[in-house]
Amino acid sequence: MELVLPVVFMLIMGFALLAYVVLDGFDLGIGLLLPLGNEDDKDMMIASIGPFWDANETWIVLGIGVLLIAFPEAYGVILTNLYLPVTIMLMGLILRGVAFDFRVKAGIAKKPMWNNIFFLGSLIASCAQGWMLGFYITGLEHQAINYIFATLIMFALPLIITYTIMVHYIFKGKATHLSYD
């Protein structure tokens, strides 16, 4: 019996995570492809995930819950090492959830904004999940250096690029050569 219960919990956790990857992977794919469609396509794409939308994230909650209850030491190691990407993934999932609900309730004028937020949330969640998988595959120990580089790449670099583009457009044609006349 000592060996049966951990295997059963591992199978339940594996099934839950597989169900999440397959089902929410479809939702993430829809979110990432959303900008490529016209307005009718976007409505059809969102309608295709509508009936199953809320249930898909439930699978990851079940998987993490089983990990916590059945394997508390593994839970501590895994989520301690993956704290930053999990937090970023949750932010992306929250953006997606808000955008999905408000897209339907907002007027037609606001629909493009919510489509963009849904895309952004899908992109953030997908990148964070890939980041977590990479950390898991390369080993969870000593991830501090990876966090530093990933933080720089994910936050600092886009801010620097955005700032550079903004400065270019704000000062384009306005700067002149230095003179003391």
Polypeptide structure, described:
It is a single chain. This protein has 181 residues and is an all-alpha fold. It folds into 2 domains: 4-140; 142-174. The chain is built from 7 helices and no strands. It has helices at 4-33, 39-49, 53-70, 72-81, 83-105, 111-138, 144-171. Helix 1 (4-33) runs antiparallel to helix 3 (53-70) and helix 5 (83-105) runs antiparallel to helix 6 (111-138). The longest helix is centred in the N-terminal third of the chain and has 30 residues, at 4-33. It is flat, with a radius of gyration of 21 Å. It starts with a helix and ends in a 10-residue tail after the last helix. The model has no long low-confidence stretch (mean pLDDT 81).
Strand residues, percent = under 5%
Query: Into which percent range does the helicity of residues fall?
Result: over 70%
Q: Could you tell me the radius of gyration in angstroms?
A: 21 Å
Q: Give the CA-based shape.
A: flat
Mean pLDDT: 81
How many β strands by DSSP? 0
Helix segment count?
A: 7
Order of helices and strands: HHHHHHH
Task: Briefly note the structural class of the backbone.
Answer: mainly alpha
Q: What is the rounded distance between the termini?
A: 91 Å
Work out the count of structural domains. Answer: 2
Q: Please give the largest β-sheet.
A: none
The residue ranges in which pLDDT falls below 50 over 5 or more consecutive positions are none
